[in-house]
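In response to a reviewer's request, we include the raw inputs and outputs for one of the modeled complexes. The two entities were modeled together in a single run.
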Amino acid sequence: MSLERGFPRAEYEARLNIIQQAMEVQDLDVILLTSEHDIRYITGFMTQFWQSPTRPWFVVVPARGMPEAVIPTIGVPLMERGFIGRVHSWPSPAAPDDGISLLADVIRSMAGTTPRLGMLMGRETKLMMPLRDLILLEEAIGSPERVDATEIFRACRMVKSDAEIAKIRHTCGMASKVFEQLPSWASAGMPLAEVFRGFKIKALESGLDDVSYLVGAAGQGGYGDIISPPGHAPLRSGDVLMLDTGCCWDGYFCDFDRNFAVGKVSAEAADAHALLWQATEDALTRIRVGMTSAELFAIMADRLGTDGDGVGRFGHGLGLQLTEPPSHIRWDETVLTENMVLTLEPSLEISEGRMLVHEENIVLRNDGAELLTTRAPAILPQLKA
Amino acid sequence: MSLERGFPRAEYEARLNIIQQAMEVQDLDVILLTSEHDIRYITGFMTQFWQSPTRPWFVVVPARGMPEAVIPTIGVPLMERGFIGRVHSWPSPAAPDDGISLLADVIRSMAGTTPRLGMLMGRETKLMMPLRDLILLEEAIGSPERVDATEIFRACRMVKSDAEIAKIRHTCGMASKVFEQLPSWASAGMPLAEVFRGFKIKALESGLDDVSYLVGAAGQGGYGDIISPPGHAPLRSGDVLMLDTGCCWDGYFCDFDRNFAVGKVSAEAADAHALLWQATEDALTRIRVGMTSAELFAIMADRLGTDGDGVGRFGHGLGLQLTEPPSHIRWDETVLTENMVLTLEPSLEISEGRMLVHEENIVLRNDGAELLTTRAPAILPQLKA
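The model returned the following structure tokens for the whole complex.
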């Protein structure tokens, strides 16, 4: 807990510098940000207030100089403590004009008329403002040239700073301990929903800020659906229990899972876990800077004896969000570089509707993988039957 | 905990029926849904997997007949247990076409070419798919006429069923108890961040599923910024502590706050709390079906002696989301009807940067307000100094 929260100003200066260099290459006048994580990445503005969909939040990144915020009045004190130039505000919610004419004024003042307006509009992005208001905004600016700036933010955010890596390592470390202690309080007979509840409480007690994401499943010799809320049936001997969590500390996620044998599980399930563990081990040993996500995928797919058709991805980036680019999948040719934080997440279908998933978090260093999670045991840890 | 999770099928049939009647009035062929809460409202599809931004999810509501889903393969088992017609899927993430041509096919098969395509694009909506993909989709469908369908979903979702109200009451009841017990474990000297942590743990222990939202503040005789993460300075005698929480049970939120005096607070702060309590009491006593949100706002503004200029809203709807329409604010002419679930949330600025906020949750019945929260005491409850 000795790790400091927040970032020094230099962290944000470095981010902005990279973004603005890329903007120059694409000859962009401004980039308009509307989403929680992109805005936090640039300014440090962190609040749970995003849970309320009522008010829109805007940050405009110019080609040169400081970003400016166009935000509801309620957010001004917090935004002003962040890395930001001018903060423009209006008493949102307002009708009929909920900040749009103000935003148009700010964009025009920064970029003139008919600017080249960067928008995050590609893979994995969302438009976190009403579509109707975007149309009104573009009318008010006067026919800006809309340019897809997704790749600029994607490329920058994929590579983590030392300070970001320290936060993710801290998150992974605390969550690893919660998993390690699970056999001391969970056993056969406990409903899956109570295992979830217990996990969340232990995670908070351990120092994590939030358990923003917890999914899991339990089934005889494997599980099927892994995204449903937990059921209330008790764990049974022979079940494989899996929990997959995205806990947060100071705004940074871990994302990994652990499998447990409830009593004695089938040899098939134990073997599947051992094979997944080995596929992860292969990736840990062989991942290198310069390799692509597709090649990393192939390392794991080879071990699992699949050509990769019909399986999902075997991991992804993480950081401010539970999942971030790239995707370890056959088609993702993203080149892996130093200081990317990644999950390794191979999965295996044992039979129709019965699968196992295994996951670790790493940072890629110049000489290979550095684990951020405490490595799962090769042999399934056992819960009391 | 005897309340059942989920809804009977009739709940979803009733929702769909209301939506489709409104679609007929607007002569809509289909409505495309992309957001977690609208999709859950129609289908019952509930998962934390929305935390991952990687994969888009689509549900298409036709003018007649069952909604159809166009979703990543990983979600098929869960979606098929919901209220849904055909479930179309593809192995997302895919490149370059991440479900868009499939979605276009489904929309065309349901609505023909050049359909009137309803989109949720107005106040409080977001586009939860890449903007680039929306453009591709519209090209693939062949110039659909895009129609704003925000009001259709807004009107339907604002009025809650008995089953929804029961869930929100259950959530509010559990959270009320957590607040009531806070003086038994929190006191001066405890850092605000530890108060947050304690609250989350107690909430989970009490049976709540998640503490999805927790903000708050503490300051001498009042607080300023109320959306920041908690600091690590210890509570001091004379502080007013406020916690505002959105806990969830079975996918339904509460949203209310409680104030506490740390030791003895200024007479000014105690008076402000009493005045806010009285403003809430006025609203509780006088709210009636047929009144507008603006009139409800005026009841509270009158008590506080403000004309409503420069203050924010004094509450809003809630349910599947922490905040939902309407807004109790000067300009919101939404007519309040039976079975709307609402917050009453007056706030008062004592001096520059020092304010108090008070909040209760109610359901509007034909004869007036029914409290869902356990009413806050008129006198500030005290924590040990």
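As requested, we also summarize the result in words. Chain A touches chain B through 65 residues (CB under 8 Å). The mean pLDDT of chain A is 96.
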